[in-house]
Amino acid sequence: MPQKTSARRDELMTELQGEARRYMAAYALFNQAVADHLGLHPTDVQCLNLLSLERDPVTIGRIAELTGLTTGSATRLVDRLERAGYVRRERDAVDRRRVMVATEPARMAELGTLWRRLNGTWGTLFDGYSEPELALLTGYMRKTVELSAVQIERLRSGAFSGPSEETAGDLGGAPEPAGDSGDSDAPDAGKRT
Prior knowledge:
The protein is mostly helical. The protein contains 6 helices and 2 strands.
């Protein structure tokens, strides 16, 4: 149910949108720094993050779904991750025609150690939050992920041609991308120098 508008709510929404943009930019820059540290592309790092949430090996088509990339771009992404030793291709035990992408446990453990070291400090940010506040934050994150998927699809399908005259001066909470879409084979593509 939409909330009633008030001057205070409008002020809070403006503040929230600004902080959301700062948050997204900070995370994109953090992701770039992690990628630089590992010698990977930022999209590769996020693909590994998403693969670590999957229970079983996946197809390149599934990687394309997870990342929003085309299957060609997802194939090049898997090529880079395979060269770096993070994944391997294997035949599906049931359907030998299908190629599955499986993570390499030793390399993923190294990556997990890095994430734990980095996230340990951030974990303390939530120490002061109550259980209902944590549930609210989790719900917000889920809705953000869902909306992002919809907006990615709109942008990639051509359904969104650009800012309208109404919103030309407002980015609407969406920062500029921090790199390319992962189409390049070079691990440092999209880095800013």
